[in-house]
Amino acid sequence: MIRLAKKYLVWWAVVAAVLFMVAQVSSDLYLPTVTSNIIDKGVAQNNVSYIWSQGFKMLAVAFVGVISAGGNIFFAATQSQKMGKKIRSALYRKIIYLADQDLDKFGDASLITRNTNDVVQIQNVMIQVLRMMVMAPIMLVGAMILAFVKSPHLTVVFLCSLLVLAVSVSIVMMFAGPLFRKLQGQTDKLNLVFREGLTGVRVIRAFNRDSYEQSRFDKYNNKYAKTGTKVFMITSLMFPLMTFILSGTNVGIVWFGAKMISHNTLAVGNLVAFMTYATQILISFMMLSMLFVFIPRAQASAARINEVLDVKDSIVDGENVVEPKSSDASIEFDHVDFKYGDTDKLSLSDINFKAKSGQTVAIIGETGSGKSSLVNLIPRLYDVTNGEIKINGTSVKDMTQKDLHKLISITQQKAVLFTGTVRENMLYGNENATDDEIWHALSIARADDFVKEEGGLDSRVEQNGDNFSGGQKQRLAIARTILKNADIYVFDDSFSALDFKTDALLRQALNSDEKIQKAITVIVAQRISTVADADLILVLSNGKVVGSGNHKELSENNPYYRAILASQIKEGDDQNA
Ligand SMILES: Nc1ncnc2c1ncn2[C@@H]1O[C@H](COP(=O)(O)OP(=O)(O)OP(=O)(O)O)[C@@H](O)[C@H]1O
C-alpha cells in the first residue's frame, strides 16, 4: 500500500493534511487545561472576569480546532478519492493494453472486483490514515504527558486500563484480521458466480437450471454472509468493550481523585481535565487499534491491485522496430507453431502459406481445429511459439503493435458492439469516415436496411448490442471492419450467423468493392459455400493444415475437404427434403 500511496498521493497535500491535524489535536489537548483553569482559578475563587476571559479563549481554541479539522478532512478526502481515481485509471489502462494470455490469468470477475471493491478498501483506509493515523499518536503522547503533569499518581489508573484495552484489542485483531482477508477472496467468488449467471441467463433458463444456479449462488452468498457477520460482530464488539473500559477508568479516576481532593493533593479542575485526557488517551489507542485491523485488509487489496499493475505484458514492441511497408499487401506464415500459455499441446503446428494483395484466403475445418487461433496470430493478439509471420514483408514482431493494427481490420467470432449510437460504433473502424462512407460500408454488410428502419445512424445500440439480433450484430461488426482502411481484412466466422442468401449477397458486394479488391481478405468459415470462391483454401484439422488449394483442386483431391463437402451436400438435401 505504501507503494501505491507514494505513487498516487500528492506530497504537499499530505503535508497540509498532517499540519491541519496537528493544529486540531493541539486545540483538543489544550481545551481540558482551559476547563481546569476555569474551575480552579475562576469558579473556586469566584473570579468572574477570569471565567469570561478563559471562556473566550476556550471558544477561540475550539474554533481553531473546527477550522483545522475542516482543512484536514478536505485534504484527506480529496487525496484518498483522487488516489482511488488514479488507481482505477491505471488498472483500466493496464487491462486495455494487456495481451489476452495475460488477462486470462486473472479472469474477468476478479479484475472487476480489483477495480471496484479493492480500490474502495484502499480509499477508505487512506482517508482514515490521513486522519486517525496522524491524530491518534499525537493525541496519545500529548494527552499522556499532560495527564502526567496534572497528576502523576492518577496516571497509574489509566495505565492499567490501557493494558486491559491492549489485551482486548489484540484478541479482537487476532480473529478479525484473517477474516477480513477471507472476505476479500469470497467477494471474488461471489462476483464470478454472479457474472456467470448474468451472462448465461438464457442458457440457465433454457436448460431449466434456475434452481441449480440459484443454489450455487446461495452457497457462495451464504459463505460471504457468514464471514461478514463474524467480522461485523467482532469489530462491533470493540465499541461496547471500549465504553466499558472507559467507564471503569473514569470510576477509578473519580474514586482515587476524590480521595486526593479530600487530602488537598489534587484540585477539582485538574481531576476534570485528567478525566478528559484519560478519555482522549483511550480513544486514541482505540483508533490506532482499529487502523491496525483495517490496514491488513487494505494491504490485501493493495497486493491484489499491484499484482495486476506489475504484470509484464507478454506481447511488447521490439527494440528495433521498423515502419511497415504500405505498398503491396502480403501475408506469410512461415513454419508457424502455436500453443496457449503453459499448455503442452500445440494448437497450431507447422502452418505455411502466402497471400498477396487482391487474394482471398479461406480457412475451414472442424470445431476446435485452430481456425480462430490462426487468425488471432495475424494482429499479434498472441505470439507464435515457433516460426514467423510476415505482413507486407516485415515480421509482425519487427513493427509496433500500433502500426500492425493499422494494417489489419478484423471482425471477431463473437460480434462486439459498444453502448452508444450506430454511428459511434462505426467510427471505431475509421474516426474520420463521412456518413456516406458509413452507409456504403453498411450496404456492403447488408446492414443498411435494418439501420434505416431503426432510425438511421443515430439509432441507439444498447449494452452488448442487445437490441439487435445475432445476425444484425454480425453485420454491423462486418460494416465496421470494412469501414477501416486496411491492407488485410479478417472475418473470423463472421458469416455464420447470416442466412445463406445474405451470406452470398454480402460476399458478392465485398468482392466488388474497390478497397477490398486491393487488399487481402482472410475468411474463417464452416460452410463450403462461403469459402468456394477463395483463391486459397486451408483445411485445418487438429491444428495442422491437411489440405490447401482452391475449391476445384480440393474437391477433386482432398479427402478432408471432400468429407466436409459431402456432409454439407447431405445436410442441404436433408434441409430441402
Ligand atoms: N484461450 C485458450 N486457452 C487455451 N486453449 C485454447 C484457448 N482458446 C482455444 N484453445 C484451444 O485451442 C484449440 C483451437 O481452438 P480455436 O478456437 O482456434 O478453434 P476453432 O477452429 O476456431 O474452433 P471453432 O470453430 O469452434 O471456433 C482448441 O483445442 C481449444 O481448446
From TrEMBL:
<feature type="transmembrane region" description="Helical">
    <location>
        <begin position="51"/>
        <end position="78"/>
    </location>
</feature>
<feature type="transmembrane region" description="Helical">
    <location>
        <begin position="155"/>
        <end position="180"/>
    </location>
</feature>
<protein>
    <submittedName>
        <fullName>ABC transporter ATP-binding protein</fullName>
    </submittedName>
</protein>
<feature type="domain" description="ABC transmembrane type-1">
    <location>
        <begin position="15"/>
        <end position="297"/>
    </location>
</feature>
<dbReference type="InterPro" id="IPR036640">
    <property type="entry name" value="ABC1_TM_sf"/>
</dbReference>
<dbReference type="InterPro" id="IPR027417">
    <property type="entry name" value="P-loop_NTPase"/>
</dbReference>
<keyword id="KW-0547">Nucleotide-binding</keyword>
<dbReference type="InterPro" id="IPR003439">
    <property type="entry name" value="ABC_transporter-like_ATP-bd"/>
</dbReference>
<dbReference type="Pfam" id="PF00005">
    <property type="entry name" value="ABC_tran"/>
</dbReference>
<keyword id="KW-1133">Transmembrane helix</keyword>
<feature type="domain" description="ABC transporter">
    <location>
        <begin position="331"/>
        <end position="567"/>
    </location>
</feature>
<dbReference type="InterPro" id="IPR003593">
    <property type="entry name" value="AAA+_ATPase"/>
</dbReference>
<keyword id="KW-0067">ATP-binding</keyword>
<dbReference type="InterPro" id="IPR017871">
    <property type="entry name" value="ABC_transporter-like_CS"/>
</dbReference>
<keyword id="KW-0472">Membrane</keyword>
<keyword id="KW-0812">Transmembrane</keyword>
<feature type="transmembrane region" description="Helical">
    <location>
        <begin position="277"/>
        <end position="295"/>
    </location>
</feature>
<dbReference type="GO" id="GO:0005524">
    <property type="term" value="F:ATP binding"/>
</dbReference>
<dbReference type="Pfam" id="PF00664">
    <property type="entry name" value="ABC_membrane"/>
</dbReference>
<dbReference type="InterPro" id="IPR039421">
    <property type="entry name" value="Type_1_exporter"/>
</dbReference>
<feature type="transmembrane region" description="Helical">
    <location>
        <begin position="231"/>
        <end position="257"/>
    </location>
</feature>
<dbReference type="InterPro" id="IPR011527">
    <property type="entry name" value="ABC1_TM_dom"/>
</dbReference>
<feature type="transmembrane region" description="Helical">
    <location>
        <begin position="129"/>
        <end position="149"/>
    </location>
</feature>
